[in-house]
Structure formats: structure tokens, C-alpha cells
Amino acid sequence: MAQKRVILELGTGNDLHGGDYTKAALRAVQDALHHSSLTMIRTLKVDPRTGMFVDVTIGVQQPDKVDLEKVRASLPYGIVTVKAVKGGLDVPDPEGNDIAVIASAAVAVRLELP
To answer: How far is CA 49 from the centre of its chain?
Structure first.
């Protein structure tokens, strides 16, 4: 059977102080997850631990500063892959010598379907 994408959810997250790209990424993933209810998983009798494939793409200005393993571990089910790419937004605060990090997340779920 071929894997077919059945859902794509988007989310945003931020770290307003501290410039923590992983924290912003985790918040973006949680935002995307809270927009979804995958009732079809039960309806189709798919085991979410072994039959659901989750692809996460995180967009931030400094992708190499995202702890991909922490992001992967934050998803409750599925065979998860995570990648970070250039995107998102950094908003500097020159007076406070600080940066606000805004991350975007795309969470795609694939199932093996005929």
C-alpha cells in the first residue's frame, strides 16, 4: 500500500525572551496538534504507534539551533521525522539586547492506504 497524506496542520510558536529556537519550535508543534483530532485513525483501525507517519517541518531563522530530538519526542504517536529549515522570524530588541523568536510548524500525517 502507498502512504498518502491525510492531514496537514500548521502552527506558530514563539520564545519572546531568550532566543530559544527549540522552545519556539515546540510551541509551534503543540499549536498545530491542538488544531487536530484524528478520529479517522480509530475509524480505520490504524495503530498510531506503527501505522501513522508524521512529518514535521519547523521554520526558524537559525534551523541549526533547534533540538530536533526534543521536537520529535514531543509528538505522542507515530513514526516521526523532523527537519528544521530557514523560515520563521527573529524580532530583535536592541534596547534590551534580546530577541523574540517566532517559529512555524507544518505537521503532516501519512497513512498507508490503497
So the answer is: 17
User: N- to C-terminal Cα distance for the chain?
Assistant: 5
**What residue numbers bound the domain in which 105 lies?**
2-113
For residue 10, CA distances in Å to 18, 36, 60, 97, 113 come to 24, 10, 14, 30, 23
pTM > 0.85: yes or no: yes
Total domains in the fold of the chain: 1
Label residue 29 left, alpha or beta by phi (over 0 means left) and psi (-120 to 50 means alpha). alpha
> What's 22's domain CATH number?
3.30.1330.20
Per-residue pLDDT tens over the stretch 61-106: 999 999 999 999 999 899 999 999 999 999 998 887 889 999 999 9
Residue 86's CB is within 10 A of a number of other CB atoms, namely: 9
